[in-house]
Amino acid sequence: MKFMVEQLGKAGERAGQMELVVGQPSATPFPLLLTKGGCVPHLTRETMVHLNIDKHPVLVPFQHHARQTKVMEKWGAGLASFLGMADHPLVLTVQDPGEVTRSGYHNNNSVSVWSNNNRELITPTRFMESVKNIKPALFLALCDGDTEPGCSNKRVSKSVSKTIDFLDTCLELKNSTPSLSETGMIGAVEGGLDMKARTKSAKEVVAREVDGFLLDGFHCNGPDSEQLQFSSIKTVLAETISLLPADKPRFYFGAASPSLVFQLLRVGVDMFDSSYPSMVTERDSALVFPNVWKSDSTRHSLSPEVTDCSPPPEGSLEISLACTTNRLSFTPLVPSCTCHTCRNFTRAYIHHLVMVKEMLGRVLLQLHNLHHYNTFFTSLQLAIKQDQVEEYQELVLGITGKDITEP
């Protein structure tokens, strides 16, 4: 794996390039395409074509494939090929950022993962055996991020010590496996909100041969991560990142709304995932905030199309397609959007699909929300390079960096 920072914004934002597979660079920051059970939620291989994101890296949670080690061994070509995503670089994480990670189930020598309500105890040895057969381009070393807010100091200490031990075992097994010699590895930095524990974790992980860092243990994934109050983690997160080398990528997994993305960028985070737009889809809603940035864009001189997709009243970034106001609305979700959904379907039609609980409704919403979120990050890359992130934030949220309030 290769990573290079190309531009540093005035508030600390980083724009760069990441190459998970030789010859396939991706501009950062960007969200990894989150999968669940082998596919993007609500989408099939055929409908994914409408996203127009060939070779976009995908994030695969190990918890959904923990029982497939023997299948992958017999397949022999890796999980990406098995899923029909051979062109997409595969990044393997442990837990699903889109699902709540059940607290209190880890053991001293293993981590619990859940698949279809079945609990699996995963040791570093079992995990690395699966990694060898899954053949990812990049993987997160086994870690214990069960440090929900309010947990005890003992739990925080265990999280840090176990994660370091797991990392050492994963590194040893990786270095002794020839087929993983070119595979990158991410180390998790744990410690909850305890700065002393975070410092220990960060220094230990930095001392190992890892290719990137996951800022883990600030939430327990799932919908609650969307409500994370950045002010509660800002100081610890910023001090932790200051201990990490600048030439390696920093990952943050969990639902990241545009407001949270702007704040995480300012402390130096590079990589995200697409659990946020998927959660918006799950509540039958569509993202509608302004997501296109041009160097001459200003909050007060927008084209009519961009004005149409401004946030609804009260600063919401989305609209509910279950709302009856859409019943006779024969316009696209976002008039200026170029996604498959907005080019071919109206709000009224999608409202009908939602009300009769037709699965096509969420298929169309997912196509739009993922496209909208990816376009948002493409614009972020441009805004960072032009050193106009604050202006872009004002366009998206209607507020400057100093005015962001918690949800």
Description:
This protein has 407 residues and is of the alpha/beta class. The protein is 36% helix and 16% strand. It contains 14 helices and 15 strands. The strands form four sheets. It has an eight-stranded parallel beta sheet. α2 packs parallel to α4, α5 packs parallel to α6 and α6 runs parallel beside α7. The longest helix has 27 residues. About 3% of the residues have low confidence.
Please outline the major beta sheet: 8 strands, parallel
Report the order of strands and helices: EEEEHEHHEEEHEHEHEHEHEHEHEHHHH
Approximate helicity band: 25-40%
Question: Based on helices, strands and strand pairing, what is the structural class?
Answer: alpha/beta
Low-confidence stretches: 299-311
Query: What's the number of helices?
Result: 14
The overall pLDDT average reads 92
Give the overall silhouette. globular
